[in-house]
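Need a sequence for this fold. Nothing fancy.
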């Protein structure tokens, strides 16, 4: 019989041996328990005391002798629940310790479009609005058929997505605006960039769409709530941008 799981409940080796022996004996003196469990008699009393404090052992007195009894094994489940409850009470205090220190951003650097596809898949699991800006038309070609599958699954999950594309992607903007839960605009030409910035939940992801192989594209992911919130604000600043007087305007531009 594998009894190591009882150690996970905080029982010592002696406690396990004594408790199991007492289950077999039903009611026994400390001397009988010592012989059955092979735990030295001087240690049996301390062990019985600790088991009694855990609610696993009780005793009765007959003819002046103390007989110990093992509580039903179901009591171990109760013991587990009590430990779980104490842990639940401790968790908020542990979280406070973590929150009391400034949380450093988690930064990961990847190479290749496959990594970016994996990140987009993870975005779908977050079930939060996705913001993308600075996206060039080349992004569509690099992502290939994957992006069509991505949008289909995103829409099925009713996840909103807002895009701000470079000027040359105005045709793509028209296509996106026909999709459900999708909103898209174009940047004025002077704001065009090779860097796409993607924000979802507490993550900001930068993808450098330069003229290089898709397998060589640099992808930088930063996890930090404050930073993600700042980039979301910057997104809406760009979304609400009003062109200056005399600035060239084209259909789909930010207005």
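Here you go.
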């Amino acid at each position: 019989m594998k009894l190591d799981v009882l150690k996970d409940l905080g029982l010592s080796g002696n406690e396990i041996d004594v408790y199991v022996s007492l289950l077999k004996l039903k009611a026994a003196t400390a001397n009988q328990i010592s012989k059955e469990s092979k735990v030295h008699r001087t240690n049996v009393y301390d062990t019985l005391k600790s088991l009694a404090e855990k609610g696993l052992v009780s005793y009765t007195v007959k003819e002046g002798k103390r007989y110990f009894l093992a509580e039903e094994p179901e009591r171990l489940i109760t013991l587990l629940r009590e430990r779980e409850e104490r842990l639940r009470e401790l968790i908020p205090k542990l979280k406070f310790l973590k929150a009391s220190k400034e949380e450093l951003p988690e930064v990961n650097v990847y190479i290749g479009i496959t990594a970016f596809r994996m990140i987009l898949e993870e975005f779908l699991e977050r079930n939060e609005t996705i913001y993308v800006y600075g996206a060039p038309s080349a992004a569509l070609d690099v992502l290939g058929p994957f992006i069509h599958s991505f949008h289909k699954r995103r829409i099925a999950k009713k996840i909103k997505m807002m895009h701000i594309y470079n000027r040359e992607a105005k045709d793509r903007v028209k296509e996106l605006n026909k999709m459900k839960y999708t909103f898209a605009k174009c940047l004025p030409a002077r704001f065009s960039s090779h860097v796409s910035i993607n924000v979802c939940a507490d993550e900001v992801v930068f993808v450098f769409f330069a003229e290089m192989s898709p397998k060589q594209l640099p992808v930088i992911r930063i996890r930090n709530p404050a930073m993600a919130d700042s980039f979301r604000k910057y997104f809406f600043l760009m979304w609400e941008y009003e062109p200056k007087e005399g600035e060239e305007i084209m259909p789909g531009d930010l207005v």
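For context: The longest helix spans residues 75-99.
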